[in-house]
Predict the 3D structure of the following.
Amino acid sequence: MSMNTPRRPLRSIAIPYLLVAPTLILVLMFNVLPAIRTVNDSLYKPARGLNSAGKPPQFVGVQNFQDLFDDSHYMGTRFTRSFRNTIIFALATVGIGVPLGLLLAILLNREQPLLGLWRFAVFYPSLLPLIGAASIWSFIFSDSIGLANAILKSVGHPGLNWLGDRNLVLASVVIVNIWKQAGYFMIFFLAGLQNIPRDLYEAAALDGADSLQQFAYLTLPLLRRTLLFVIVVSFIFAFQTVEQLQALGEGGPADSANLLLYLIFQNISERRNWGYVNAMTIILIGVVLTFTLSNFLLFERDEKDS
Amino acid sequence: MSYRFRALIVFVISLLLTGSAIGQGSVVIDFYFPSATANDAEGIFQGYADAFQEENPGISINPVFTGSYTDTRNTILTELQGGGAGPDVAVMLSIDLYSFAEEGYIVPAQTFIDGMEDGEAFVADFFPALMSNGMDADGNVWSIPFQRSTPILYYNADLLAEAGYDSPPTNNAELVEIAQALTTEDRDGLLVPVAGGFPIWMYQSFAIAYGQNIVSEDPTQVFFNTPEAVAAVEFVRSLGTDLGVGPAGGAAWGDTPTAFLAGQAAMIYHTTGNLTRILRDADFEVGVWYLPSGPAGEDGTGYGAPTGGGNLYIFDDGSKSDAEMDAIWKWVTFLSSPEIQADWGATTGYIASNASAWETEPLASLAMEYPHYLVARDQLQHVGKEFSSYATITIQGIINGTLQSILTGEAEDAQAAMDAAQAQIDGILAEYR
């Protein structure tokens, strides 16, 4: 008994570490080490040219990053476009998709006939596999045989080249993304709305607040946590977009709708581009972190102010 | 209960014993193949593997379906770059040659051909055009044609006849004339599938017809900004703008045969790989002909199309035994034999790649019934090499992006855009010169 006593604290110190060890090792192996390697490899160019197989890469400092922002460089041309598109795409899908999800949640949070059907109709796109849903849309957007143009033509419009017009194709991808996600966000907002006690609204109504005022001063502030979550998640979704592009014209024409993660995927297969692929990955992570952190900071500051 | 358990153990042990008995003394060949068509490629290859194993009891074939061409290439590159074994034999695009030769993953078929008794006759039986992408600048054969294709002109013979044309267009001037005559409010006269991620293949048809293939024997040379190359893309662009016979920016690859079958397009450029499907599904008379000649063809030549499709590649890092290499070559010659080529061509619509396959059943009778297949074969005498160079994937990306920006009107000045692209391409290829 007395011999065991000094061991006990040691064991109780060790056990928690042992318990988290499997997770920790996995995170180290599959997240931390690859991240370190990505940073390292972004500073090298792989050996290129004749008989270069098996030769070591060459250290180039930040040259890869400079090439990416050089519009006359073959990778820079593609990167600058995709970078710009990624920012536009994220702002558009979040800026339209999140308010739309909120609007749908408010509309479907009141008693009405066929409520379940309406909710299901709005939610079901998020149940479909992404690549399948995007493939359906590629038929809808098809130039000569698509549904979208059939509708436009029936009202006398000559039809649009949804996936072939460089000024329109990014918007087409945004439409698909919003259609896919708005119902998913609606579910979170619905849950949030149903947590708000009804008597608050009754009190506000007694004080003479109209429905717009109730929304601005009651609903929005009380949904703050949900809103933060949905905005952060939707930004991250936006930066992860790949499958839609695979089905909707592969980011073309001429990268008019290409996004960073898909561009990275497109360039992985040729060894000469690995330095760029790593550099682009770091930039993408930087962008995601910036957006996520600024969202948290904005909401945090707001929280303290109010 | 215990009886059942004992029976299970006996069963498992006997399974293990027979398994290891089969394994002893036999060579296993891992064979990766993509499928770009909706046919049951897996079933067909399993059938070929079974037939081969019956002839060669010491060799077993392990066919692995690896998705699209791109998936197949990426799967193999990922396996090999990560230190994995990779396949022994694979079907990959004929233009993937330099990507894999550069990395030292594949070995030339020439070594095996030199060791054959009738090596010269073996090579001579393949259509020369289909060998061009499998050979390096010194004439060494690296890969063997397997499932090959080329673009051809499909036309709705009923619509042409209604408008008073009893034969298809043979040059660009006739092509434009007929296309304009057949364009209506809800029908395109001509669809050329250059929209989407891969305009380079169709574009090459026009470049060759204008007298300048953008690629040569030398994998360090690309000719993308010559006057002919520029004129070719300007002609393609004008189809959707000034001439108004199709959508601006071109048609999408997958929509093109669908629109043709639905009667919404009178003529289309598409791959011979779709011939079987179009003949089967069309409810009108389908005609096929060579892609019309460009201005280069005013003296009677100048038909033009690139080749396409996949070849058989042999993988070795130097560690494989002679017995393994012999088995690999046996499988490659089996798949490229006239018998298999005739069967594969008839089942899928790919162009059987050796001349004697066309005298072999079932292809011989199919070609008798549908002369369309012979048009595809005979056009081979006019086709050029498909685009391939060192750093193929990157350079193809530059060319595709440039073509897209010209075709969609973003780059109005085609010459300037192509000059800029050529400078980027030369910058990369300089590393190989």
